[in-house]
Amino acid sequence: MEPKIKIRDMNFYYGDNKALKDINMNIYEKKITAFIGPSGCGKSTFLRTLNRMNDFIEDTRVEGKITLDDIDIYSKDIDPVELRRKVGMVFQRPNPFPKTIYENIVYGLRKNGVNDKQILDEVVEDTLKSVALYDEVKDKIHKSALELSGGQQQRLCIARAIAMQPEVILMDEPTSALDPISTMKIEELLLDLKENYTIIIVTHSMQQAARISDETAFFLNGEVIEHGETKVIFSNPRDKRTEDYITGRFG
Ligand SMILES: Nc1ncnc2c1ncn2[C@@H]1O[C@H](COP(=O)(O)OP(=O)(O)OP(=O)(O)O)[C@@H](O)[C@H]1O
C-alpha cells in the first residue's frame, strides 16, 4: 500500500534548537498511528509539522520533505489553510468555542461561505452521530457547548474536525484530560473513525497505544528510535531503548 504521508530526512528547528532529527517515516491510510515517548522528545512538534501548525511559531524551520498523497506540503504552491482542512487537529484539552453545539460544528463551514441551513443541519446531525454524541445532545444542540462534560466536549471537538471532511486527523493527547469512561468512549470512537480517516495520535499512555493503534513510533530526544506494527513494538522491540521505555524503566 502507498503511504498516505511520507516524511523524508526531516529536521525541525526552534531557533538553534534542533528538536527533530533526521525523521523518515511512512504513515498509512485508514490506520491509527501512535507516537509515544517521554516528555519533550518532540512528539507534538512532529505532529504539528504534518499540518504546518508550527508555521505559527516564530523562528522555526523545517528541512527535508513531507508529502501528503505525494504532494509536498511545504511547497510554495500549498495553501496552509486548505492543508489544515485536509489534515485536521484535536488538542489535549477540549477547546470548544463559547458558542452553541451547532455553531461549533458548522464554524469552519460558515467560514468557507457555506450557510445553507439544510446542509448545515445535515452536517450537524451526521457528525454528531459519527462521534456517538447525537443521542446525548439532540435536545440541546442550540445550547452552549460549554455546558457539556469534558468527554462530551472532546467528542464535539472531534465532530468539529470531521465536519470539514478531513482525510487525516491529528490528535495530541486527546484523552489526557478525561476520566477513564470518557477515555474509553473516545478510544471506541477512534476505532470506528479509522474506517474513514487516517489517524495519528500522540499519547503518554502505552496501554492506549497498545489498545487502539495499528502502528507505533517511539520517539526519544527528537529522533524516531523505532517504528512499526504496534504488536511487534510492544512484544518484540528491536531497540533496547524502546524496550526500556515500554517496560517502564524510564519516562
Ligand atoms: N513553541 C516552542 N518554542 C521553542 N521550543 C519548543 C516549543 N515547543 C516545544 N519546544 C521544544 O521542542 C522540544 C520538543 O517538545 P515537544 O513539545 O514537541 O515534545 P513532546 O514529546 O510532545 O513533549 P510532551 O510529551 O511533554 O508534550 C522540547 O525541547 C521543547 O522544549
UniProtKB/TrEMBL annotation:
Keywords: ATP-binding, Cell membrane, Membrane, Nucleotide-binding, Phosphate transport, Translocase, Transport. One of its GO terms (biological process) is phosphate ion transmembrane transport. GO terms for molecular function: ATP binding; ATP hydrolysis activity; phosphate transmembrane transporter activity. Its main location: membrane. CDD domains: ABC_PstB_phosphate_transporter. It is found in: Cell inner membrane. InterPro entries: AAA+_ATPase, ABC_transporter-like_ATP-bd, ABC_transporter-like_CS, P-loop_NTPase, PstB-like. It is a peripheral membrane protein. Part of the ABC transporter complex PstSACB involved in phosphate import. Responsible for energy coupling to the transport system. This is Phosphate ABC transporter ATP-binding protein.
